[in-house]
Amino acid sequence: MSQNVIRIATRKSPLAMWQAEFVKAELEKAHEGLVVELLPMSTKGDVILDTPLAKVGGKGLFVKELEVAMLEGKADIAVHSMKDVPVDFPEGLGLQVICEREDPRDAFVSNTYKNIEELPQGAIVGTSSLRRQCQIRAARPDLEIRDLRGNVGTRLAKLDAGNYDAIILAAAGLKRLKLEERIASFISAEDSLPANGQGAVGIECRTDDERVKALLAPLEHTETRYRVIAERAMNTRLEGGCQVPIGAYAEIDGDILSLRGLVGNPDGSQVIRGATSGSKQDAEQLGIALADELLSKGAKAILDAVYAK
Ligand SMILES: NCc1[nH]cc(CCC(=O)O)c1CC(=O)O
């Protein structure tokens, strides 16, 4: 392998390809003469489209094949949406870099209505995220939530086909795919606490690959890292994968990191919330402390019930 080449294992969805192309462009900008190649692959998560993900089970449905490619030396790095990255990594691989975060909010997408409040009694909302479902149903128990899978384009097509009155998507994905005009309104973190890592892109590589680690270094965004560390620490402590009704969202002002967390059940009948803040240097401890607070308020019983289904 030439010293001047770096290979990116990536999923083939338009959003994954955008993220891989973004990292390729950033790497080429940072290192003159570097050749960056894309290795597009299918993952289990891309193939199983008819079953709600929470039921398919297993963490990291969207990353395993990419990790195998790196371990076998077929690729050097993988680019992930941080919210889809499992909390632990296989031996020999690690999360090396977290890039600057895009808009972390959820977006309300509808061809008819401006926001959730405008939806008529009993309207049908598409989302497969238990976290989104929980928060929407807590605010509007009358709404009917229907499963919605597939990549961003597929989900928008299902909305346009009239299957739903509205759907909820991550604002980041729509912005990256230049589909921002499809957003009827942004949902504030108060109304829909984002998933841990939402809107942030992370880069994974072999932990012993010093050449690649040095090449990746300029892409690191320190503030985003602190935020995502706090959010992920909360999730890890709660033993939550990405398909659980957990919201975790950190913001930074100067040295102070403020973290909000939420655990609920899918029908929105129970929602446990908490918040904490402290020095950003203590991001991980803040996440753990907030998880413990949520657990002491009853989060464990809720999560156990969700996993038992
Ligand atoms: N769960 C799928 C997923 N993973 C990452 C994004 C896009 C935004 C991001 O980077 O967080 C999406 C789509 C969505 O939730 O609408």
TrEMBL record:
Catalyzed reaction equations: 4 porphobilinogen + H2O = hydroxymethylbilane + 4 NH4(+)
Domain of life of the native organism: Bacteria
Domain Porphobilinogen deaminase N-terminal: 6-213
Residues with PTM S-(dipyrrolylmethanemethyl)cysteine: 242
Cofactors named for this entry: dipyrromethane
Pfam families: Porphobil_deam, Porphobil_deamC
CDD domains in the record: PBP2_EcHMBS_like
Functional pathway: Porphyrin-containing compound metabolism; protoporphyrin-IX biosynthesis; coproporphyrinogen-III from 5-aminolevulinate: step 2/4
Cofactor note: Binds 1 dipyrromethane group covalently.
Secretion signal span: none
EC number: 2.5.1.61
Subunit structure: Monomer.
PANTHER family according to UniProt: PORPHOBILINOGEN DEAMINASE
Function, as annotated: Tetrapolymerization of the monopyrrole PBG into the hydroxymethylbilane pre-uroporphyrinogen in several discrete steps.
Name of the protein in question: Porphobilinogen deaminase
